[in-house]
Design goal:
- The structure is a single chain.
- Helix 3 (31-48) runs antiparallel to helix 4.
- The chain contains five helices and no strands.
- Helix content is 80%, strand content 0%.
Length: 84
């Protein structure tokens, strides 16, 4: 760890632990892999296998990944909803 003192290490772990999942994922650089997994799982289970639980669970999990993706997917959803 960066810090030598145990109290500073504990404080760092506590502060990192209370961060929202989206910030932790962004710090670790995993957001695009997680987004790809969630979106492909949504397509496979939600559309191809027609599982209702996937249509509820995976969009909620995407919300915790990236806010700009949520905005983009929301716009795409509204376009699909009104044009189809």
């Amino acid at each position: 760890m960066i810090f030598k003192e145990v109290l500073l290490q504990a404080f760092f772990i506590f502060i990192f632990g209370i961060l929202p999942p989206s910030i932790k994922i962004s710090i670790l650089g995993m957001e695009y892999g997680i987004l790809f997994f969630l979106e492909m799982a949504l397509l496979y289970f939600g559309i191809f296998k027609n599982k209702n639980w996937a249509q509820i669970v995976f969009p909620i999990l995407v919300l915790f990944t990236r806010i700009d993706t949520v905005i983009f997917l929301g716009i795409v959803f509204l376009i699909d909803l009104f044009l189809l």
